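STRUCTURE REQUEST FORM
Protein name: MO2R1 protein
Source organism: Penelope pileata
Requested output: structure tokens
Priority: standard
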Amino acid sequence: MVTWKVKSSTSCFLAYRNDRNETQKLNCSERMTWKYSPDSNPSLRIYPVNLNDEGNYTCEIVSSEGNYFFYFSLTVIVPPVLTLTSDKNGAAVCQAAAGKPAAQISWIPASNHSIEEEVHHLNGTVTRASYIGWVNSTHPTVTCLVTHPAMNQTLSLDLSYDPPWLHYLLIGLPTGVAVISGAGVMLCLIFRCRGKSFDK
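Status: completed
Returned output:
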């Protein structure tokens, strides 16, 4: 006889008696089945796995040779969803969303001026975001490295751009100079005219 006992978010009981070729299933998800025929291999199959499956699993095998117990602890790892963007202030934002455990975020080149935020969700996952203001014009590309038990990945973003106010300044500069020059000429002519009238 083979028996699986599961203690996770719910308690589950799955058993097989080879003398009767009979299976029993109590309070187990439909995702939880025998991987093979239980009379030859009592392995348990869970597909697809979700966070509620995390817990302790006990397998008991009863045979003419004795009773055997096997204990397992299942930890579910969830890879985060990664994004690298820039906000309205020109800061780079590297985010690892809904991962379990929380991902680690670092910057290349390394920076001591990053700011991190962390949000813990009800299902046990964590969203972590790191912000960095990138003002080094010699290295316009910023790269973040995300480290997680399920993955290691780098993301890069080119932050080289001309601020909108600079375009307005460059476009408006010739006109401004012309206006100022014209006003200067006009004032000069007025003073000259007045000077001549005073001479009279």
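Reviewer notes: The radius of gyration is 35 Å. Residues 163-200 form one domain.
Form closed.
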